[in-house]
Design a protein that fits this description.
15 helices, mainly alpha
């Protein structure tokens, strides 16, 4: 990728973070108080995300290897993973930032088709694991939490949403979904001409990418289930972030029940926040999700506010790390890179 293009992504992410900081409605006194209260647990939370990013990077590496050799080092994949998530955190509509960046960075090494399909497959697997995580949380809620009429209706709607999402992704993995996605965009007002022109100009490329998506589930089941396992377990482990914070409060039920609460809080909050995907850093959605979910667990508003603030601090920390990594360890674009791209594209054809 050219440095000029990389700088555009960097500035876009930086501006989004600055905007978020100025619209973060928490006083510095409150922020500093909560950071001090978190103490060494904040170090554990930041360290936990090293493990989660390592798992994400390994998931992506498995997907890349599912379609052939992987000439990209694991450390570079890890770097692009952290930077990609940083851009997704900071930009509206999430995938509008990190995924195009990763595709352009990976293209010189494995070609446009493989880079695009591997990034799309990773994004699909990440979301697919979320649907299963949300579905798991529904079962846990039914087993361990009291249910009234209102909550019963909410759980029923969540179940339909999760099963519908899982069904769509299973169909997408079997048949590919890029062509259908472009056709769907063509039905959005104002996008019809662009989608039609894009589909005509890139018809063969889109079909090749769909074939590579279908191959992961159909021919490389070991890669498919291996990547799914890592992503799903990663969502469970992410609950430890909330579990660490609950250790600072006198929450009854013992360690096991506290971990169940952590899973339920994360599941409800992530679902609520993802429904507001168009907000930079899911601003407002995350805080509202924590407030509602902790209240359902019988916890005070102070606990929900504390969790949301510490999670925001963690997001800012890793977003800053991701933007920093975007500027280091980059190879200059040259003719050999362009030849590599051409060669890889020819092979994919």
């Amino acid at each position: 990728m050219k440095n000029s293009t990389r700088n555009i992504f960097f500035l876009f992410g930086l501006v989004a973070v600055v905007v978020m900081l100025f619209t973060f409605k928490v006083s510095f006194v409150q922020l500093w108080h909560d950071v001090c209260k978190a103490g060494y647990w904040l170090i554990a939370i930041l360290g936990l995300w090293i493990v989660l990013y390592l798992m994400n990077a390994q998931t992506w590496r498995i997907i890349i290897k599912g379609s052939g050799e992987c000439p990209v080092s694991f450390l570079r994949i890890l770097k692009l993973t952290i930077t990609g998530f940083a851009l997704n955190y900071a930009t509206p509509a999430g995938l509008m930032g990190g995924e195009p960046y990763k595709i352009m960075e990976l293209t010189p090494s494995i070609g446009t088709h493989r880079a695009t399909s591997s990034v799309l497959l990773f994004a699909m697997m990440h979301i697919f694991a979320h649907f299963w995580f949300w579905f798991t949380s529904i079962i846990l809620y039914l087993l361990f939490m009291p249910i009234d009429t209102a909550m019963g209706v909410i759980l029923a709607l969540m179940t339909l949403f999760c099963l519908g999402g899982i069904y769509l992704f299973v169909k997408g993995y079997k048949n590919g979904m890029v062509v259908k996605l472009v056709n769907f965009v063509g039905h959005i007002p104002g996008c019809k001409k662009w989608a039609h022109r894009f589909a005509e100009n890139h018809a063969e490329d889109l079909k090749n990418i769909d074939c590579q998506i279908a191959e992961l589930q159909g021919q490389n089941k070991r890669s498919f289930y291996g990547s799914f396992f890592l992503e799903y377990i990663g969502r469970i482990l992410q609950s430890l972030e909330i579990y660490f914070m609950l250790q600072l409060f006198e929450v009854g039920g013992g360690s096991w029940m506290m971990f169940i609460h952590s899973i339920l809080i994360l599941a409800f909050t992530s679902l609520f926040a993802n429904l507001l995907f168009f907000m930079p850093l899911q601003l407002g959605g995350r805080e509202g999700g924590f407030a509602i979910s902790t209240a359902r667990m019988g916890m005070t508003n102070d606990i929900g506010m504390f969790i949301s603030i510490i999670c925001r601090v963690r997001e800012l920390f890793w977003t800053a790390i991701g933007l920093f990594l975007m500027k280091v360890g980059n190879k200059p674009s040259n003719n050999s890179d362009r030849k590599t791209v051409s060669g890889n594209i020819s092979e994919n054809k």
